[in-house]
Design brief:
The complex is a heterodimer of chains A (298) and B (397).
Chain A: H1 2-26, H2 31-45, H3 47-62, H4 64-73, H5 78-92, H6 100-121, H7 125-131, E1 151-152, E2 155-156, H8 166-182, H9 190-211, H10 216-237, H11 250-270, H12 280-297
Antiparallel strand pairs in A: 1-2
Chain B: H1 2-21, E1 35-37, E2 45-49, E3 55-59, E4 65-69, E5 85-87, E6 91-95, E7 100-105, E8 111-116, E9 127-130, E10 140-145, E11 150-156, E12 164-170, E13 180-182, E14 192-196, E15 201-206, E16 212-217, E17 227-229, E18 232-236, E19 241-246, E20 252-257, E21 267-268, E22 278-281, E23 286-290, E24 296-301, E25 311-315, E26 318-324, E27 329-334, E28 349-352, E29 362-364, E30 367-372, E31 376-381, E32 386-392
Antiparallel strand pairs in B: 1-2, 2-3, 3-4, 5-6, 6-7, 7-8, 9-10, 10-11, 11-12, 13-14, 14-15, 15-16, 17-18, 18-19, 19-20, 21-22, 22-23, 23-24, 25-26, 26-27, 27-28, 29-30, 30-31, 31-32
The chains are: A mainly alpha (298), B mainly beta (397).
Chain lengths: 298, 397
């Protein structure tokens, strides 16, 4: 346990704390700007993963008719459903756990930010005592930047928003928008669609609620991170579930075409006969292609 | 995808509970050092604050037996970081986390007065001076800094009445350092008040008027109490340097680089002597012994950081320097046996308290008193190297 604590401190907390203090020192001694800038750097560093996740989410959405087809075809045979689903993922180059990456990475960062902000602002003598050994003596400017001033706009970044609604509302709203955009515009499974919808509302409410008691510096990080996420999401997969009718980016069209074309290839190899239609135009196309595949075989 | 959201939700719930369990934004209990009252009335009474902000009087002649304690009230009792100062009218003066200056009667602990400054926590100690000139208009003065960056000078004229503000001096950041009064130096008709601020500066003020005499800028926060030997002010900074500053001009004489922040109060072996040496502990746990020219005499690297301030005492013809690490190892050096060539000096003995220690040490009559974070006070005999007593000072209503 001590070893894990050491790794956590040395690999996450100390680098984050030093980065925040350094950014504070070079960015006009403004901790709010330091947090925003730090968020951009983190988002930049995780950009490839975020894009990959956004594309996978999109692809998964487009694959829904196919997945539904498999479920119907092998109804009652869980092993077969699992096998065929994995085959489909493989042919599309999707790892079902691939989209976990950015989420898995975001949480250590989020938790690390909580501790880094708390350590950096060091409002009590005990906290300031703890901060000294965490700073890299070789890193210029960090020692002279202490103590870090916690004022930013109307906020005291070490305490909850005094307004007290602005930050919770912004956190909730930005999380809602990003969650909506990250959702597939059409989900073939009504049960999954219902769950996703519930989560899309629950998560922003939950985050907004905890923002009431969290330091506003953490809320600032969350809002900045969401805004960058929204921009990335828009340019990689459009508005997603936020404005389903406007989901017409060239990127998504290309993906859809690729999927249909891949689906045709798969059916030639894997499906001996058409097992029934899905919803919408995509399923109609899938049906037609499936028939064509059977015909050739016969 | 829904599973991912569930993971997200659970993780955030975990963060929330962590935040609630260990918010870390409030004070944890203070680190007031023991004060020995050896006045005829006090008779070796040890005054100390516990982790809850109660002040206790322990009988130094009876193995620390508790004489009295101030009452505890969850709403009004606030942590105490400053070490008590023996004030006029048999009072003990201290500042509190909630920004009050308080005077208690050293005889029974009753509150003589309480005065709110500016709501900023008072971390540093209180400086107190008495005017011996009977014809003067003032008798007692108190100086204290607040976390809002103001240094206050207060007049104390009436017994059992709160003081009145004489002047205020505003700095750009928190004042956590205890101010130091230098009395009537060389033909100057006023005292000099020296203190550091988190705004990186050391200030010298006319203690009568609050007029700034000089300011000296370092590259880091100045949170420790300065020290004056002769006409030199010694001040440590978070930029890891010790600065020697001319008392009258405020010009730099020399600097000495250390391995960590300098916050702790320094020890000196004989402040009246021309060849007095300084003992400077860094927060990283290295103790530096320097002469007045900034030459390194010897050093010692402890195995953990040092939050407490060291103390020096002459005992049975030994020159003993005591320092305690945060992990609770008391180290005692005989400075006469240490080299003067900059190499390492080993302690003559050490004693493991075994609990965290952050409060400054106090030494009196060959006994070092330690306020330990487990809410106990220990009395350790320096020449015999034994713990004489261990008294719990934990909170009681």
């Amino acid at each position: 346990m001590e070893f894990i604590s050491l790794i956590w401190t040395e690999a996450v907390i100390r680098p984050m704390t030093n980065s925040l203090v350094f950014l504070y020192a070079v960015l006009f001694e403004n901790f709010g700007i330091a947090i925003i800038c730090f968020t951009f750097i983190i988002r930049l560093a995780t950009f490839p993963l975020t894009v990959k996740q956004a594309r996978m989410t999109k692809q998964m959405g487009l694959m829904q008719p196919k997945l539904q087809e498999i479920q119907k075809k092998y109804k009652g045979d869980r092993q077969a459903i699992s096998r065929e689903t994995m085959k489909l993922y493989k042919t599309q180059g999707i790892s079902p756990f691939g989209c976990l990456g950015p989420f898995a990475l975001q949480f250590p960062i989020f938790i690390g930010m909580f501790f880094a902000i708390r350590d950096t602002l060091a409002t009590t003598p005990e906290a300031l005592v703890g901060l000294g050994p965490k700073l890299y003596s070789a890193l210029p400017l960090v020692d002279s930047a202490i103590p870090v001033s916690d004022g930013f706009l109307w906020l005291n970044l070490g305490s909850p928003d005094p307004s007290p609604l602005i930050m919770p509302v912004l956190v909730g709203l930005s999380t809602f928008v990003l969650s909506k955009m990250s959702m597939a515009s059409k989900n073939a499974d009504p049960r999954q669609a219902s769950m996703a919808k519930t989560m899309t509302f629950m998560m922003p409410i939950f985050l907004a609620f905890i923002t009431f008691s969290f330091p506003s510096g953490l809320a600032l990080y969350w809002i900045s991170s969401n805004l960058v996420g929204i921009i990335i999401q828009y340019f990689t997969s459009g508005w997603g579930g936020l404005f389903p009718n406007k989901e017409v980016t060239s990127d998504s069209k290309t993906l859809e075409k690729e999927l249909i074309s891949d689906g045709q290839d798969n059916e030639r190899g894997n499906f001996s006969e058409n097992s029934g239609g899905g919803d919408g135009a995509r399923n109609q196309r899938a049906k037609r292609s499936s028939k064509r595949g059977s015909g050739r075989r016969n | 995808m829904n599973k991912l959201y569930l993971v997200l939700l659970c993780s955030l719930a975990l963060v929330t509970s962590m935040a609630c369990a260990n918010s870390g934004y409030g004070p944890q209990g203070g680190w007031s050092g023991p004060t020995v009252d050896n006045s005829p009335f006090g008779d070796q009474t040890i005054l100390v604050a516990n982790q809850s902000g109660q002040i206790l009087a322990l009988d130094g002649n009876r193995r620390g037996q508790i004489k009295w304690r101030t009452p505890y009230d969850e709403e009004t009792t606030s942590p105490v970081y400053s070490t008590l100062v023996l004030g006029p009218n048999n009072s003990g003066l201290f500042g509190t986390w909630d920004g009050r200056l308080v005077a208690i009667d050293r005889g029974d602990g009753t509150e003589q007065w309480s005065y709110s400054l500016d709501q900023g926590p008072i971390i540093g100690g209180v400086a107190f001076s008495t005017n011996t000139d009977k014809e003067s208009s003032w008798k007692h003065r108190i100086y204290a800094g607040s976390s809002n960056g103001t240094l206050f000078a207060l007049n104390l004229s009436e017994i059992n009445q709160p003081p009145t503000i004489l002047w205020e001096f505003q700095t750009q950041d928190k004042i956590w350092a205890t101010p130091l009064i230098h009395t009537y130096p060389q033909n100057i008709d006023h005292n000099i008040l020296i203190f550091g601020s988190m705004d990186h500066k050391v200030y010298a003020l006319n203690s009568d008027t609050g007029e700034e005499l000089w300011q000296f800028e370092t590259n880091g926060a100045v949170a420790g109490m300065p020290l004056i030997i002769g006409d030199t002010v010694y001040a440590g900074s978070f930029d890891r340097h010790l600065y020697a500053i001319d008392l009258f001009s405020g010009k730099k004489k020399w600097t000495f680089k250390t391995d960590g922040w300098l916050w702790n109060q320094f020890a000196v072996d004989n402040v009246q002597s021309a060849d007095a040496n300084l003992y400077i502990p860094s927060r990283e746990g290295t103790l530096y012994a320097l002469d007045q020219e900034g030459n390194l005499l010897w050093q010692y690297a402890a195995d953990s950081k040092v939050i407490s301030s060291p103390v020096f005492t002459h005992d049975n013809e030994l020159n003993l320097l005591s320092m305690i690490t945060e992990k609770g190892t008391l180290l005692v050096f005989d400075t006469t046996k240490c080299p003067h060539n900059g190499s390492s000096c080993s302690p003559i003995w050490s004693y493991i308290v075994g609990e965290k220690v952050q409060a400054p040490l106090t030494v009196f009559d060959g006994i070092v008193y330690i306020n330990v974070m487990d809410d106990s006070v220990r009395g350790v005999h320096l020449s015999e190297a034994i713990e004489l007593w261990n008294r719990s000072i934990a909170k009681q209503d």
